[in-house]
Design brief:
Chain lengths: 140, 632
Amino acid sequence: MSCNDPMEQRPAARECRSLCAAHVICVVDDDDEVRESIGAFFRSVGMSVKGFAAAESLLSWPELDAMECLITDLHMPGMSGFDLQQQLRLQGRSVPTIMMSAYATSETKREAERLGIAFFLEKPADPELLLDRVESLLGT
Amino acid sequence: MHRNVRLTAAVLVTVAVFVIDTFLPFYGAVAVLYIIPVLLVVPLNARAAIFTALLAALLTVGAFFVQHHAHFATGAITRFSISLTAIAVTTILALRDRSSRISLEEQARILELSHDTVIIRDKNNVILHWNAGAEKLYGWSRTEAVGRVCSELLECSYPIPEVDSALKDAGEWAGEMVRTRRDGTRLVLASRWLLHFDADRKPVGVIESSADLTEQRRADAERMASEQKYRTFFETAGFAIWEADWSETMRMAARGTAGSPDLRAFLLANPELVQAAVSKAVIRHANQAAADLFDASSRADLAGLNLCGRYQPDCMPAFADLLSRLAGGEREAENEVRLKTLHDKVLDVVLRVTHLPNSGDWSHVLVMAFDVTERNETRARIAQTSAELAHASRVSLLGQLAASITHEVNQPLTAIINYGKSGLSWMSRPEPDLAETATCLARVVDNGNRAADVIRRVKALARKTTPEAECFNVKELVADALGLVQAEARSLNVTLLTNIEEPVPQAYGDRVQIQQVLVNLLVNGLHAMREVEQRKRELRVDVRQDDGGMLNIGVHDVGTGLPDGDAARIFAPFFTTKQDGMGMGLAICRSIIEAQGGSIQARNNAGPGATVSFSVPVALPYEERLRTHTLI
């Protein structure tokens, strides 16, 4: 569990989305501001996420098995969002995934579909929409 | 007669006369014979002759007293007086004769010395005297010439009636004549003839002195031909030339030097003084091209004209520069000015002002004018077209970066929306958390700035500006260019590096266009590494000052490198290795760099990839830029 995340230390004052609060949601984006701002939004609604600056660091995360939902950027140095998805599938993991990209072409959308990506969001994505998608994926 | 023989004879005769006069009872004027030693000594020395005469007188007096004791017979006194008188008269005559003989010898020597020819002829035109000058000029030696009839020897040709009447009336004639040398060459001579008279004032011949005019005539003719030649150059030259009097102009300009060591700065600061000085320049004469340039109906219309009112007021700085350079000792100076013709047409003209040699003052100044109006218009049109082409190329370059630039802007926008909504969320809680809200707002501001920065870089490159040379910081330019391709590099998994050799001086040129070149090379470098999988993708910008003082900026990639032999061809228009490329990018880069005075070249690296590097001039002080600038 992401108990080492400082975001979790503070109690959520708002109506607690208790269902989600307990879930392990991972965000992979090489852009610090984007990643941290997503974390900040989720925290403001009483949820916590685990952030990673690269796909490689997510894959090497010891608690990877606990991941229930993945939000990842498509274009990143090193492994891309697609590479990550492929790797996860190779490892036999099937985690519901939301992919974000600032420059989505019909090709990338097709590829996302092929890889079984649940949602493809164009940046800048509305964080509330992102929240809705996460909630729907977590099957609440 | 030999000197010693004369002296010995003189002494012997003196002794003999004295002995006879004193001791033998002759009743005759024996002492008269003392004139013999006097005449013997005279040719040797005038003083010795006077001494001899005085000695003779003394001896005569001595002998008179010895013979007659105090009994002076009338006959003896008479003889005594006759002897003394004879000695005195003879001595005086001998001395006079001596002095006239010496002056004649002097004259003859002087005639020999003269470079001119001196010939003395008798009344039958037979040559009596022929000096060294005549030997040299005519080629006949004295022995060959003396005794010959002059007119036959030298085949003289001169106005005979005129000469005859002049000699008859005035006794002399001066004029030109033609004679023939021994080698057959005809000579033109300036000759002066003088009638030569005998003691009875009867003409006995002619003394003449002549000087050779042939060389002078030839030089005169040559000079005239040369003058004619240059006058023809002047008059028929295809560009405007006029000779002007700038003495008053330069005087007024130089007056500015008093109290101001830097005349140029002084004149630049006082355009009204420059205007006043220029208004004193007067055209002396001009050629037909000048008349055409000024729309004058004839060359004569320009003479005496002052052009000051025709020069546009904005060209006074150009005149300040011209005047200060000429006043500073430069023989030639040029600058571009703008003037109105007599029909009020405005022309751009390069004036080249030359201070004519051998004219101490400024009264003869040669001004050449080249009409560069058409050239300037063409240049302006080319510059505009190039600027438009460069801009189109920049826009196309930004198009290539559109994806990564969109990403670059979207990232901060995403963060702004997220933080904004987070803030709202914190605020809308039953107990709003102001501290959290403040944190969110601070991050909104940060990301807003970040987005604005991207937009600024894009705008700077997309800007449509007229090319303008300025001093700029190369390190900033490199940072901006890297900023623009940063997202593209990230998406292609390329690490951007810099290798900057300090210190980096300011560069001089069109910043926007030079940045465009760098961005273009960076994009090319990035795309050249698309296929590279087996090594770390790195793109490095090197900045250093080369030996020639130019700033060298190189873009070093580890991509696929240039196909063999393409190192030079890649800068040709329409050359491309890309599927979707137009092949204009590098051609435009080259024209941009060359227009700034730099150069661009490409080469394959020793290792993988290629390096494309270009140079830009280092910012020079204003003065030096002016010097290296040529007008025509």
